[in-house]
């Protein structure tokens, strides 16, 4: 319904799509400006940083497109309009994700994908193998699942917090911004936190460093580059559990 509504005004949709593409492009412009003055960043070349940027941005864009609307759940909990979703014969999570579905977010996905393809063209020093080639689309898919799971878990948190969207954004938008840069420029404690505490590093750092022929971060073994699907499955399972607990604890507004 929301897609049909959006496409009714095609020129308006095209302009919002272009605006979304341009707004997210400025994140990459910062990297371009940086490399206009330096040859490397933390020992990584421009092509390698662009590869990190492209993988996490595409993964986050897909998650934001599918589950980004879950951030609105807190408002529904506060005003009691979530009740209308509970009586419909459709899963509540699907309704929350589809509420005011923003097709314009394809701009972020497109922008990240363009940078990713460009970086693959520039990575002439990588010794490509079939395994490395498979890892590239795999990390985008698993990264999207990890980010999407964080969004669902954040939505579940709002059943109690009712206005905790910024907490979720610190892990999703903040995590995306963090993973756009090489781990070598961050403090060791922060890298360990992203690897072992909230393992966002499996979105792209861990598999991407294997593709680039570099050591895994925070002392992880080499085989950890292939653990992203398992980590994503764990995120999905925990997010599903959190959502079920949140739904069962919902007591409407009490009015």
Describe the protein's architecture and organization.
With 255 residues, this protein is an all-alpha fold. The chain has one domain. 69% of the residues lie in helices and 0% in strands. The protein has helices at residues 2-7, 10-35, 46-67, 73-79, 82-86, 92-98, 106-122, 130-161, 165-179, 188-197, 205-211, 228-249. α2 (10-35) runs parallel beside α7 (106-122), α3 runs antiparallel to α7 (106-122) and α8 (130-161) packs parallel to α12 (228-249). The two termini are 31 Å apart.
Give the gist of this structure.
Keywords: Membrane, Transmembrane, Transmembrane helix. The protein is mainly α.
Write the layout of secondary structure elements.
Elements: H1 2-7, H2 10-35, H3 46-67, H4 73-79, H5 82-86, H6 92-98, H7 106-122, H8 130-161, H9 165-179, H10 188-197, H11 205-211, H12 228-249
Helix pairs in contact: 2-3, 2-7, 3-7, 3-8, 3-9, 8-9, 8-11, 8-12
